[in-house]
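Supplementary Methods S3. Complex input for the adenosine-5'-triphosphate-bound model.
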Amino acid sequence: MKERVIALGFFDGVHLGHGALLRRTAEEAARRGCTPAVFTFDRPPKEVVTGVPCPLINSPEDRRDLIRRLYGIGDVLMVPFDQEMMTTPWDDYIVRILVGRYHAVHLVAGHDHRFGHKNQGTPELLAQKCAELGLGCDIIPKVEVAGITVSSTYIRRLVELGQIGRANRFLGHPHTLTGTVRHGRGIGSSRLFPTANLIIPPHVLVPSHGVYATRATLEDGSCYAAVTNVGTRPTVHNGSDITVEACLLDFQGDLYGKTLRVEFYEHLRQEIRFDSLGALRAQIQADADATRAYFADGIPACSAGAL
Ligand SMILES: Cc1cc2nc3c(=O)[nH]c(=O)nc-3n(C[C@H](O)[C@H](O)[C@H](O)COP(=O)(O)O)c2cc1C
Ligand SMILES: Nc1ncnc2c1ncn2[C@@H]1O[C@H](COP(=O)(O)OP(=O)(O)OP(=O)(O)O)[C@@H](O)[C@H]1O
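Predicted complex, serialized as structure tokens:
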């Protein structure tokens, strides 16, 4: 039987507060010689309960991948948050699901973690129940940056505002968007610069419209500095559909149909409408130069391994 130390929560963004739980989980699992794990849901419980859509910082795939890459926890139990889960009483959730089904021997949660039907489970009840059942338990105190509690809600707002540098300080890593490269309309490659257009995963927040210094990682794990536009491309397009297009610097090759990870480092400027393609082209060249200057000391090392 695979015994687990399990961290509890949704973990959107995999921010520095989450990091405190995940580090503790990995440490306790190593001490006990069992598996570190995360128990989370495929969609945000708040959205299912209230019916109000909550676009997320990360797709489920990126959330899973960040937990593994940054904190070394590969066992991410991502279960459907359905009617049955929603109405499971808090103690049943611990006894029947976490212990019975997933063999928890130690649970790790944050200072404000709520769980179970009607959010009736609290950190205090969790600690009490664990003591009763002979399980280990850690309640992690809140993590703050510059006096502000780190939370997914706060970081979502920063991403929406395009305040990527600040969002990254709370995340502890660059904001990440991974998608598949689709065909654009070919204007870029024929008359401007070749760009990789990402299919934006459903339900994910894109940063506010503008141009960003980014790092692009290809399926084979190789990394490039890239200048990325998020927006509606008002110079060449009248519609409102949003694209995320990355122009990889010093890269030549075909990326169509491939997976591409784009990490956002800095907001460079707003997206605007130019009077001519020539003016847009000159500006994109300047954006590429600004991106090279941003990464003048070298692009941060890629984490080992393919996507
Ligand atoms: C770094 C960069 C900056 C861009 N900035 C703008 C902009 O400010 N205004 C705009 O209308 N389009 C902007 N674009 C989008 C171009 O219009 C777009 O790449 C071009 O229309 C190609 O589209 P296609 O791939 O659909 O052919 C930018 C693209 C890149 C890569
Ligand atoms: N700043 C923090 N310090 C310590 N623990 C945290 C912090 N933020 C979240 N946690 C804990 O991490 C786990 C996952 O958090 P979760 O994703 O549910 O919350 P969150 O980041 O506060 O999100 P939201 O803003 O959507 O409520 C929970 O156990 C939570 O209590």
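The chain has a mean pLDDT of 94. The pocket of adenosine-5'-triphosphate (ligand 2) is lined by residues 8-12, 17-18, 20-21, 109-113, 140, 142-143, 149-153 (CB under 6 Å).
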